[in-house]
Write a structure and sequence with these properties.
heterodimer; A: 262 residues; alpha+beta; Immunoglobulin-like; 3 domains; 4-stranded antiparallel beta sheet; 46% helix; B: 176 residues; mainly alpha; Rna Polymerase Sigma Factor, Chain: A; Arc Repressor Mutant, subunit A; 72% helix; globular
Chain lengths: 262, 176
């Protein structure tokens, strides 16, 4: 087995690019090209000279050649042979016109296909960017929630179901008394019926005084079912009721779903 | 350096890849065909046959037998040689006095926009006559080492090294 330098010096690489080696040697060199980067580089340099040489001797091929070739691809049977020129010059002229039209039509078609593909790609890119932005926002929001929940000053309040009204429901409140912020985790509540919303209440016990702290307007659209509520007054308990859309002045106790004390 | 992706798409009958391949290699192929047939109109005709074959037989190309350019080159040389062996061509043969490919560099009157050819022509003309003939036979005409040795009346064992030295000289001049 030869090493890379021996191949380079052998003179075989030149003949490999020319394609004039016996088949077994062609395969041997092809294998050496994939094996040794230096052999590949040499072959590419030789090919470059061969390309320059062959291009330099070209008297310039006519652009119509391509149109005719292209027409030939489409319909191998109707390739117009240049050798018929003497006898069929008028036919050839018409064929050339047809070929040119086909060519022009093809180029327009290609251009419009490309334009469409480009527009489509731009739309897709925009959509992906939007989704990325949404994902980033979601992530940002979740990171904020997580940071809030992990904070030492947070009270975690379980709001068990009011079994008289609903079974198997629950909610949680993460409550920061100092900053008067709470996150409600309503994952354990069913979707409110059409025309109804959940309303959160802060309660003082003695005397029993409910104050509305927020109406959950977009329950259906939230993936996390976690809602932030600010400006919460001092609370001894939290409750959530089902109310007509827009919320109510006072809680509808027959629809008190969950309730828990701080 | 090899347009692998284009080749793959060509093999899947992608017309745009074909058009691109044509754009990349047509002048090289036309040059080689023209050196063999020595007539532009005939070269046009052969060129059409060649690229139709490229389209038809693209799947048969595999990298483990050689370069894609080499594959094109073989199709082009074979088609051009078939053409000059045909009766119709022999009856109307022209340019009998052309010795090697270098003729088309020296005698090219239409040099507008062909700066490449002016540049390389200058270097080719500096080569020894034997170099021009070796490159002409092996590269442009596709002679085997045996055929070239016989035609040039030089020992078989020296064909490879002569060609390498000639091409190397050309390369050094171009790259300098």
């Amino acid at each position: 087995m030869k090493d890379a330098n021996e191949y380079i010096e052998s003179g075989q690489l030149e003949l490999f690019v020319y394609g004039v080696l016996p088949e077994n040697e062609m395969q041997e060199i092809a294998a050496a090209v994939s094996k040794y980067p230096s052999v590949q580089a040499e072959v590419e340099r030789i090919e470059k000279v061969a390309l320059q040489l062959s291009r330099a001797v070209s008297p310039g091929s006519k652009p119509e050649n391509f149109v005719q070739i292209y027409q030939g691809l489409r319909d191998q049977d109707t390739v117009v042979s240049v050798s018929k020129k003497q006898n069929w010059s008028s036919l050839l002229a018409w064929a050339a016109v047809a070929a040119l039209l086909v060519g022009i039509f093809w180029m327009f078609q290609q251009k419009s296909t490309l334009t469409n593909e480009l527009e489509q790609a731009a739309l897709e890119k925009q959509e992906i960017e939007n989704r990325l932005l949404e994902a980033k926002n979601d992530l940002q929001g979740q990171a904020e929630i997580l940071a809030f929940i992990r904070n030492n000053n947070i009270d975690v309040i379980d709001l068990p179901a009011n079994e008289d009204v609903i079974e198997n429901a629950y909610a949680k409140v993460f409550y920061d008394e100092e900053s008067q912020v709470a996150y409600l985790d309503l994952q354990g509540l069913p979707e409110p019926p059409e025309g109804m919303v959940y309303q959160a209440w802060s309660l003082l016990m003695d005397p029993l005084t409910p104050s509305s702290i927020g109406v959950i307007e977009n329950f259906e659209n939230s993936d996390s079912k976690i809602f932030e509520i600010k400006n919460i007054p001092t609370s001894e308990a939290f409750g959530i009721t089902l109310e007509p859309a827009g919320g109510s002045e006072t809680p509808t106790l027959s629809n008190l779903y969950v309730l828990g004390t701080v | 350096m090899q347009p692998d992706l284009l080749i793959e798409r060509l093999q899947q009958k992608d017309e745009r890849a074909f058009a691109k391949i044509y754009e990349l290699y047509s002048e090289n192929i036309f040059g080689v065909i023209h050196v063999i047939v020595k007539d532009v109109a005939v070269a046009d005709e052969v060129m059409q046959d060649v690229f139709l074959k490229v389209w038809d037989k693209a799947e048969s190309y595999t990298g483990n037998k050689g370069r894609f350019f080499t594959w094109l080159l073989n199709i082009a040389r074979n088609a051009a040689i078939d053409k000059i062996r045909s009766k119709a061509f022999k009856n109307a043969q022209k340019n009998e006095d052309v010795e090697t490919f270098a003729f088309f560099l020296e005698n090219d009157e239409n040099l507008d926009g062909k700066t490449d050819s002016i540049g390389i022509g200058k270097w080719v003309n500096k080569l020894k006559p034997i170099c021009k003939r070796v490159i002409d036979l092996l590269f442009f005409k596709g002679y085997t080492q045996n055929e070239a040795a016989e035609t040039l009346e030089i020992p078989l064992g020296t064909v490879k090294s002569r060609n390498r030295n000639c091409l190397k000289k050309l390369r050094e001049e171009i790259e300098a």
